[in-house]
Amino acid sequence: MKCRKKIFVAMALLGSLIFQQTAWGKTVVAMDKAEEQELIVPAETMIIPPTDYIPVLMYHHFAVRDMGEGNGVVTTQAELEEQICYLKESGYEFISLETLKLLLQRVEKERVHYKRNVKDELSLGLDKKYICITMDDGYISNYDLAFPVFQEYRVPASIFAITDSITQQTGLKKFSWKQAQKMVDSRYVKIYNHTANHVPVDMETEDEFLDEAEKAEIALQTYLNQDGCQALAYPNGRFTLYCEEKLKEMGFDLLFTVEQGVITKETSRYEIPRIAVESGWDGQTLMENIERTARKSFVP
User: Fold this and answer.
1) Strand extents, DSSP E, 140-267
2) Residue 61 β-bridge partners
């Protein structure tokens, strides 16, 4: 009987020891994970000040009513108006491409002449929250639906036009050169280069692509009376370093891609990312996507 009690006590002590070791092991693991979480800040929880970057929005088509699923690049006029109001109320200042060029040129000079802290390597350190609006292709809805909104809210915007499509009115209906001049005369909208034929550089030779870019620039100068910078948006966002260098030699100040991102201190004026605005976004959704894209730009 005594022997059984001794065995029982020994087993109980052994079980208790095993339990304590197991529990202690779990506690150590939990502590390690907690310390690890303190050291790693998830990108989704980071807060990037809006003065550290500049978002460039990219639109295409506009419509009066919701076009339904499958029309991700169609924004309704009401959505555009609500987005602009929301951004204005949130303290954003809409700027033209001319102003953007000056800001980026200033950043380039600072990058050359001044040292910076590693933690501020990507930060623009602006005194205001800036944002740009761009539209691709030159659809008639840019004139009929978007232009009145820009006028009403005094917002500058830029259109990258396919010049042959305007001159010949091919494909989906585009605005006319006369309508383009009316927008330019308002001082709220300017028209820029999206090449003459909208053929991506990987679907023709690089020299053919450059010829189409030059042809479009000549058309803009011929049909429009406007001043300002020289800018181009690559068709489908595709480009080569050779074309980039040649376009710089041709005098282009700004070159735009379709890469999702925001402008930071390290952004090249010749590879500017944009945020594609999708159908159905209200102002808050747009803001959330801007902030999400900024976090991804700062924390790859």
Assistant:
1) 157-161, 189-193, 231-233, 254-260
2) 74
